Amino acid sequence: MHSIGSRCHELRIRDIDKSWRIIYRMDEDAILIIEVFNKTTRTTPDQIIENCQKRLSKYDTDIQE
């Protein structure tokens, strides 16, 4: 998912009546679970993308300290 950041991916899980998405990033030393949500439309909502970008930015800033 380049709209969120490099090394970000989306895992799709189909349940009986829902379609779950897990957005994650693969770093050299960790796999970061950024967001889990029930996808109800064809596109990923802008709010989800923005939340993921903010979380990754905060994580990257915190990890450098």
Automatic annotation (TrEMBL):
Organism: Leptolyngbya boryana NIES-2135
Pfam families in the record: Gp49 (PF05973)
Name of this chain's protein: Transposase
InterPro entries, sorted: HigB-like (IPR009241)
High-level lineage: Bacteria, Bacillati, Cyanobacteriota, Cyanophyceae, Leptolyngbyales
